[in-house]
Write a structure and sequence with these properties.
Length: 154
């Protein structure tokens, strides 16, 4: 058995701690957001998939949309990677227009050096479908989500 270097063990332990803390925060917010769907509202629980167009995979994705001031929405994403790892990210989506009943919005989030740095999002949201593209220096792809009937489990 090869000895594991201390820096590698510290990085692994930090990652596990960070992933666990983020997951519990999202789980609490998800559970608290469970409520009956409003016909034309876009806030609440969304489920679907993310797909990397750069070959980095595809997997499950959940999003919790919460209205903010000035028509903005806080989008809390909970993504699976290889169905084993889970990551949380939050981005404020700012309205950029409205076309045929679709809310168009964009936002940016810095996920840090190890996660690809600055990500830019362009979203097209209706009452039952949420499509977004994302780009960064390391990846680009799309989110495809549908309204989730209220649940308490993330």
């Amino acid at each position: 058995m090869q000895p594991t270097s201390l820096p590698l063990r510290l990085v692994a332990m930090s990652f596990l701690l960070f992933a666990g803390v983020g997951c519990s925060h999202f789980s609490n917010d998800w559970s608290n957001a469970a409520k009956p769907l409003q016909p034309q509202a876009i806030d609440g629980q969304w489920t679907g998939t993310w797909t990397s167009d750069a070959g980095h995979g595809t997997d499950d994705l959940k999003c919790l949309l919460t209205p903010q001031d000035a028509g903005r929405y806080l989008a809390q994403f909970h993504a699976a990677y290889w169905s084993l790892f889970h990551f949380d990210e939050t981005v404020t989506l700012v309205p950029t227009g409205n076309k045929d009943g679709h809310l168009l919005a964009s936002g940016d989030a810095d996920l840090g050096l190890f996660a690809g740095g600055l990500y830019h999002y362009e979203a097209d949201i209706t009452a039952d479908h949420f499509i977004a593209t994302y780009t960064s220096s390391a990846d680009h792809g799309r989110f495809d989500l549908h309204r989730q009937s209220p649940t308490t489990k993330p």
